[in-house]
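Session log. Operator J.P. requested a structure for one protein chain; no other inputs attached. Running the standard single-chain path with token output.
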Amino acid sequence: MEQVKKKRKFKFPLWAKTLIVLLLSVTAVSVVAVVYSSRYLKKTTMQSYVDKSVHLADTLGVYLNYDEVLAVRDKTKEIYETVVPADAFVSNDSWGEDIWLTYLHYFDEVVNMVEYQNILKDIEAFHKVNEAKYTYVAYVDWTNERLIYLIDDSPLGEEDPDVPDAPIIDGERCLPGTFDDFTEQDKTIYSHIAEGFYSEVTNMEQYGYLVSVGRPVFKKGEGIDKNDKNNVEFFTLVDLSMDAIIAEQSRSVQTLAWILVILGVAAVIVGYFLVVLFILRPVRKLTKAANEYTEGSGEELDKFAKVKIRTRDEIEDLSNSMKKMEGDINKYIADLLSTSSKLEGAKRKADEMKSLADKDALTGIANKRAYFETEERLNKEIKQGKARFAISMIDLNDLKLTNDTLGHEKGDELIIGLSNIIRETFTSSSLYRIGGDEFAVISENGDLKDIDVLQKKFVDAINKSIKAKDVDGMGVSAAIGFAIFDPKIDNNVEDTFKRADKKMYENKKMMKGSN
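Structure written below.
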């Protein structure tokens, strides 16, 4: 009887299975670690640079001499509107051509202005302190949707010896009158005038990685509508270079990738010898730990540290290798994250500069600029129907007489004395010095409920000061008036301010009549 041959079943060796699992696990860990670290750091780094550039642009607007910038802008605008009629064919596409050189030559008068030179020096000093790539000032031709450059501190090219009077255009500097037509992203500014040109991250061969921000500087005065483009005087613009940080991150990620590759290869080799010894259970533990990386990639990388293996063989070596790999990953991620921490420090520095800009130097309380910011917030709350506040207007009496007879130093002592009384009275309100002898108090929450009591407390404190003559033998005399926001009669903060100001002057007249 013919013997039937049995068909041999194909077997997938255990060593091959384990090898494949190890290879996939190590690859998954490496990919997740590199991709997650790279994306996270790139996102946080870019956001930090965007925040820093916004703060620097705002600070530059406060730092520059407002009137000098307007003088440069008005002269540039006058020339621009004269030499660039609506149908003229002059654009940045013709940069370096004869028509463009002829056009720029019209603006030599602007470059020679004292105001232009002063602002250029200020911008260069600001640039140097804050390590910006480019710092410049421009205004907008809203009709033609163009950004017209006023002052730019970019590197200037070398003058052509054959044409000494021609504009220098072979450098990176945009001379007065240089303009860029709006991009599609630039055109979105119409919906957010107060926020300026949105931050844009670009990577061009000529300039590298840049974060660009443009912030508006508005007309001076009270009640300015910051959503009206006609109230924008000019824009301060800052470009921050990200080349160094991007290069450093790229090198760190490449180093991390090579470490992961080397350790991954070592892990696969060790895994092969584990199959020879046929100790499957510890291998499963390691495989499980590796798979947990892909299941919870956003968590802390400490999976292998939790695995306890004491086999005193190659499996324990593999466990230690994976722990070392994990430690190296955490170390390099920590190094990369420290870079982001440095950027946060730069942001805090910009915040401190803004805080100083909002503080009155003599009294230490908030200044008129800070008042306008609060006014803007309250106006938004009024539109939302949730505004609840009161404004108290306080004016120091006889400051001019004191300055004329005893000197400005004594007048300053009275102003400081009045500010101390206001602090001690309105302990939970926002205090502002909005003029030489004028103070505004915005009361919300607790102080708003007790506004009548606080007004009497203030008057009592003033009377006590006058009677005791506790400031240089004179005492502090001041008039006060307040108004509570009423949505039936007040359309904005300015309306409430005017009612409080009127009551203050009525109080001042009454005080003079009683003397």
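Operator note: Residues 362 and 416 are 7 Å apart (CA to CA).
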